[in-house]
Design goal:
Strand content: under 5%
Number of helices: 5
Structural class: mainly alpha
Order of helices and strands: HHHHH
Number of strands: 0
Shape: elongated
Distance between the termini: 15 Å
């Protein structure tokens, strides 16, 4: 059973890093194709993304912080993009537009839960 947990943990780390890399690349591609409506929007989005990356790298011994950072990233990105002048999208499409953010949150949560089980 312990090997199964380790295998799942490795899979979640792969999902997490793929999500972080894809989201970082998406910022550059998306804003290159269509500039942000506000000049401070891209730096704020990149700051939220960097928060997640730093928490993943710096807090491997405490995955809860990476999960909290991922949640802050999801909420922050949604607020920055959904406000007037941002990228308009109906709530039904929320998960589609923020799929990578949602995957990062799920992966950090799964890693945190596995870490908690191993600590017990």
């Amino acid at each position: 059973m312990n090997q199964t947990l380790e295998g799942r943990g490795g899979l979640w780390y792969i999902v997490l890093w793929l999500g972080v890399v894809v989201e970082g690349l998406w910022f550059f591609v998306a804003f290159k194709l269509a500039p942000a409506p506000y000049p401070y929007q891209l730096p704020l989005l990149l700051l939220l993304w960097a928060l997640v990356v730093l928490c993943i790298l710096a807090f491997k011994q405490l995955p809860l912080l990476a999960f909290i950072a991922a949640c802050i990233n999801l909420v922050g990105c949604a607020l920055l993009k959904s406000r007037p002048g941002g990228v308009p999208h109906p709530w039904l499409w929320f998960a589609y537009y923020h799929l990578i953010d949602v995957l990062i949150v799920i992966a950090t949560f799964a890693i945190w839960q596995q870490w908690r089980r191993q600590q017990q």
